[in-house]
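look at this fold:
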Amino acid sequence: MGVLSRLSYVVRSKVNAALNRAEDPRETLDYSYEQMRDELQEVKRGIASLTTQKKRLEMQQRRLEEDVEKHNRQAREAVQQDRDDLARQALEKKKAKMQQIEKLDGIVADLQDRQDSLVEKQDKLQTRIEEFRTRKETMKAEYEAAEASARISEAMTGAGEEMEDVSRAIERAESETEEMQARSAAMDELEETGVFEDALSDEDSIDRELSQGRTDTEVDAELETLKAEMSGGAETESEEQEAESETAAEEERVEADVSDEEVEQELEELKDEEA
């Protein structure tokens, strides 16, 4: 097989495969049905044309038959007038017309046979078309039911082309989401370890440790100061509470002395009154 032959074969096979994929059985059935209807119309037109030709010949036959009768009358009249010559002419014309009628009889009979054959074929084709129409509608219904069932099965199992696309899209989305989550976790981890700050700083590791030591020392000093302030404040508060307690006790003693004096004075007054 030559290169061109192989190329032609490959092209035809590719085209045939593409047509098979693009072919819709329902459209093919409808097209076939329309083709059969067109054929039936052609048969009907053929029958009509044949019948027209037959009718035209039959009309010509009737005119010839009328001429035969006419020539027959002419021959009789010529004989009555002793005109044998005219009678002979009339009979010759009569014979020629009868020969034409005989030929037309054969042609009309042949046309009639052909017409009968076409009518029979038309009836058979009509019956076949009706049967095909019923079968076509049945096959279309079966195809649509099978197609719907296949689509439902594909949707449920995820085996259809669209469902496969959806599944792949979901997988890509999940993969991208996991990637973004991993990157976010990595950024958080690097930020916690100070990698980003290290990258932006000019200090080396020794500088950072010394700086951390200074910070710790300052924090410790501030903590000691805070503790001292808190301790001094507690002693002052204790002294104030003790002073307040002594003042209150002194006031109570003074009030008690005053009360005793008042009682003694009132007692002396009572004694003087009794005396």
